[in-house]
């Protein structure tokens, strides 16, 4: 005997929420793949300065997002099927998966909030090391200039955010993106520290907004799945 009345409404409401959850998983998976293959981050984070690789903490987070998106799609499908079939077993499994996902999301959110500035800081340190090597007389023996030029061309910036970058303009014509004139290059190009902050902070805000939306949906789904499970149990008694 199927559920009736308000419990039946909850059944279809849970199906709708699960379909939205499945779509959200697909969107997160798509956004994560876009971030993984974004030309700006790819050009910068694939750089290598001598034997030192550019910081890859950002990509670790992206791989986690890809996994989360795939799991969300699977859990969303499980919830939709469990709601339509009115299966207590599937709904219980779905609820357990949601609790685990929610706990992982909270833990990832706390980690991201604590380390939100660390990614940009690591990349800026990598850039500064390359910049110092590019200014050295023996820089032809390393790839410091190539790394700095890649930063400058990718981010349309010129020089670090420090006094050295401001008072030594002679390197600009060689390392910075070419404008119509030297004065235009000096005025229109921002320092690279600011551009690096803008690049990663914008992407982290996008991830944060998506995480909040998904967390709200998950809370509603946990409540609805428990109510529906109780309704199915009560209806089977009669």
Automatic annotation (TrEMBL):
KW Cell membrane (keyword) present: yes
Family matches, as InterPro entries: Tetraspanin/Peripherin (IPR018499), Tetraspanin_animals (IPR000301), Tetraspanin_CS (IPR018503), Tetraspanin_EC2_sf (IPR008952)
A molecular function (GO) term: lipid binding
SUPFAM superfamilies per record: Tetraspanin
Localization in the cell: Basolateral cell membrane; Membrane
Taxonomy, superkingdom: Eukaryota
GO biological process, one term: regulation of cell population proliferation
Membrane-related topology note: Multi-pass membrane protein
Keywords on record: Adaptive immunity, Cell membrane, Disulfide bond, Immunity, Lipid-binding, Membrane, Transmembrane, Transmembrane helix
Cysteine-cysteine disulfides: 157-192, 158-176
Sequence similarity: Belongs to the tetraspanin (TM4SF) family.
Protein name per the record: Tetraspanin
Organism: Psilopogon haemacephalus (coppersmith barbet)
């Amino acid at each position: 005997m199927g559920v009736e009345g308000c419990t039946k409404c909850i059944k279809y409401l849970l199906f709708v929420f699960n379909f939205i959850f499945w779509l959200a998983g697909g969107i997160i998976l798509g956004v994560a793949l876009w971030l993984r293959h974004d030309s700006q981050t790819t050009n910068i984070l694939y750089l290598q300065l001598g034997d030192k690789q550019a910081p890859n903490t950002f990509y670790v987070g992206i791989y986690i997002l890809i996994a989360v998106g795939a799991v969300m799609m699977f859990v969303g499908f499980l919830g939709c099927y469990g709601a339509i079939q009115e299966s207590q077993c599937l709904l219980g499994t779905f609820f357990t998966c949601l609790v685990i996902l929610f706990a992982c999301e909270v833990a990832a959110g706390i980690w991201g909030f604590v380390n939100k500035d660390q990614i940009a800081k690591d990349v800026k340190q990598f850039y500064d090391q390359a910049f110092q090597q590019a200014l050295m007389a023996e820089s032809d023996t390393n790839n410091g200039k190539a790394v700095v030029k890649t930063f400058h061309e990718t981010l349309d910036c010129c020089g670090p955010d420090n006094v050295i970058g401001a008072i030594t303009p002679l390197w600009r014509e060689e390392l910075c993106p070419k404008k119509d004139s030297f004065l235009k290059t000096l005025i229109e190009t921002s320092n690279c520290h600011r551009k690096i902050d803008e690049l990663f902070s914008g992407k982290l805000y996008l991830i944060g907004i998506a995480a909040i939306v998904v967390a709200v949906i998950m809370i509603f789904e946990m409540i609805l799945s428990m109510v529906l499970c109780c309704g199915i149990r009560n209806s089977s008694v009669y």
